[in-house]
Known about the structure:
Bound molecules: pyridoxal-5'-phosphate
Structural class: alpha/beta
Amino acid sequence: MESGSSFKDGHGGNVWRLARESGNSWQTVLDFSANINPLGFPAGLKETILNYLPTITHYPDPECQALREKLAQLHRIGLENIIVGNGSTELLHLLPRALKLQQGLIIEPAFSEYEKGLRYNGTRPHFLELSEADGFQLDLAEFEEKLNGMEIVFLANPSNPTGQVWERSVLEDLLLLCYHNGAFLLVDEAFIDFLDQPERVSLTPLLNQWDNLLVLRSFTKFYAIPGLRLGYLVGNRRIIRRMRERQEPWSVNLLAQVVGQELLVDQDDFIQRSRILIKEERAFLAAELGRLDSIKIYPSQANFLLLRLTQNDLNATTLAQELVQRKLLIRDCSNFRGLNNFYFRIAVRTRPENEVLIAALKEILT
Ligand SMILES: Cc1ncc(COP(=O)(O)O)c(C=O)c1O
């Protein structure tokens, strides 16, 4: 890539564009901008895909029945409480459209598709920006104030991009406030499987208890299949029915459906190995990068770290450009609401990969 060329993307993970613009093959790019499990997908998936390849001469099951049955068992909920999507992003766009929502609140900084899903479907987005000065913590009174007139609230647990975890008791407080205001709470658990003990904070066990709770899940990150596209939303059957009625037919492809089913059984070893790796490597990255005076690192329990450049002579956009020259992608966070162009995010990857990034950052920043 020519120096000075401006590689920038609304999301992380666009290795294709970097490859195209730099004239290199995408395999040579080390991607720290998308937060995907560095172990790759579980070994058995290749065989599953090959076995099912001949069946792509058929349309996929538009009901995603077999996968929904497995998800119903897993979460101990009814089939009618589950909708599967072509990635969880499809569902973020379908929801406001299907429900004809007028007003929605987003706890920021956050994944930008919450806002786009609302905006592009005629819903007015409102924002509650958590600030660094408050440690990105939520003030309940401010939340309650903002809730007035809202039909839905979006937040992610763990949060992207901060990596912070919302404790279940706090989320229950939010659920109660939402309930009294006639609002739904959508908790996006796209990264929850990377936590040491996701069962401690996931809200899926509360689904039978709260009618205004929606939980969004993705197979993309933890099972490293962003290219296949698979996610789901669980919650209130009336909402799910309206979404399913308005979902485009066959949006979840056949291979994604069978892979999803396989991922719901016997993955204990993969799950444990992934969690151990992420914990160790997150600590390693934080310790090594913590030696640099010009970086502040925010505490994260997820498979990524939010960082801020503390000296004014270099911003994250320029840093990202410099790293692109070395075929390294990081996520410049300047387009997150509530952050600015001194923030960036890096995924936790394997030791040799992390060492490459650390060396490059040390060279640029010292
Ligand atoms: C917080 C969060 N939720 C959801 C998604 C969407 O994931 P997918 O559409 O691949 O399921 C992302 C992707 O970056 C994300 O960061």
